[in-house]
Amino acid sequence: MIVDPDARALRRARRTIASQIAVVITLVVLAAGAIAYWVLVHGQGEEVDRQIDYTLAQGLSATPPGCVFLVTPSGHVPAALPFVPPPAPAVPPGGSVTAERELAGSTFTIRAVDHGGQVWQVFVDQRYQTADRQQLLMGLVIAELVVLLVSVFSGYVLAARAIRPLGEALRRQRTFVADASHELRAPLTRLHTRAQLLARRARLAPVPSDDFDLLVSGTRELGEVVEDLLLSTQACNERPSLEPVELGLLAEQAVEAEAVRAGDRRVRIEVRRSPGLVDVVPGVPAALRRVLSALLDNAIGHTPPGGSIEVTLENPDDRHVEIRVADTGVGFAQRDAERLFERFAHGGQGEGRRFGLGLALVHEVVTGHGGTIAAAGVPGVGATFTLRFTRA
User: Fold this and answer.
1) 273 and 313 in contact (C-beta within 8 Å)?
2) Strand extents, DSSP E, 249-289
3) What is the pLDDT of residue 85?
4) In whole angstroms, how far apart are CA 71 and each of 79, 126, 141, 171?
5) Cα(233)–Cα(181) distance, integer angstroms
6) d(C-alpha 363, C-alpha 345), whole Å
7) DSSP label of 339
8) What is the C-alpha separation between 333 and 61, in angstroms, rounded?
9) CA angle, 113 as apex, 109 and 115 as ends, to 5°?
10) Which candidate, 273, 276, 282, places its Cα nearest to that of 313?
């Protein structure tokens, strides 16, 4: 099985991004948990200090808190104390000594204080503080596992969205290569064959001018394919800056450029403007000029001698401009209208490229300008392409 290297690279990039997102989120949660644990331990330490200070201040006259026990040299030992109090450590005059010890299965904070020449000891049972810390640690572990799973899943989803433009760029690159190889193969083959025939004939006898005309026609077709491919790459890039474009002027220029070819084929071609026409739209002049050129090329190639082509401009409403390129050529079945704009579709009549890459690029450019294009045809009667753009 052949594995697409682009797809493999995209999957690897997706896994890398997802793992990095998971690691970052996990570290953030871990840091937040460490801060929460430190705050809890610090608060518990301060609470133990307050309980010890309260017990020492009140002495035997007050009942200490339930987990705090006061032991004095006079023999006062709380009845609830679960162990025999150890001997008091040496305490400097007016000072204190604090330590933690494991006694009777629990952790006790012990503070010995010099109290008027006597050493008083305060025992604080930390079983509840220890339980709180254990519960917090358990909660942090569970939260960390949940966050890890969620971050992996969300990272995988976000990574898919992040690399989607890259995948689209790779797809467009492959499409461009396919377009180039597909569209250039046929004209290059014809040019090569004609050049070989001319070379053979030139060695034997003068070459008829018709052969040179065919060679020139082939180079012209090849140039059109190259222009289409270049336009395809532009259509795949970010939208360029737009400027006001007068569609009527572009239509007249396109018709003038095709006038000689139309005359050779005895096809009448003209431009018509509706009264009071407002035809300025935001766009890229070169791209829109290529659109009109491609439509006229198809119309001329599919219109027999004696036919006609009309380019009509009008305002269907206050917000739009419409251009219709109508011919009296071979036409097409209306069921093929949508297929006209698909890449690599080919028609069986006419000399133009009504089907194929040309109209696919026309569709891309028109929709890239926020416009629409529609095709209508009747076999043997003709075809009409209608472009609609929003006015500037």
Assistant:
1) yes
2) 268-273, 280-283
3) 85
4) 11, 17, 39, 82
5) 14
6) 14
7) G
8) 108
9) 145
10) 273
* Dihedral sign (CA 288, 290, 293, 295): negative
Q: What is the pLDDT of residue 348?
A: 47
As a whole-number percent, the residues of the chain with pLDDT over 70 amount to: 77
Residues 135-178 have pLDDT tens digits of 999 999 998 888 888 888 888 888 888 777 877 777 777 776 66
Report the C-alpha gap between 94 and 118 in whole angstroms. Answer: 10
Q: How many residues does the chain have?
A: 392
In this prediction, residue 269 carries a pLDDT of 92
pTM: 0.47
Backbone CA torsion sign across 358, 359, 364, 369: positive
For residue 30, give both structure tokens: 């871990």
Both tokens of residue 80? Answer: 């609830």
CA–CA gap between residue 220 and residue 222 (Å, rounded): 5
Contact 369/281 with Cβ under 8 angstroms?
Answer: yes
Tokens 């009008």 label which residue? Answer: 314
DSSP 8: H
H/E element, 137: helix 127-204
More confident residue, 273 or 161: 273
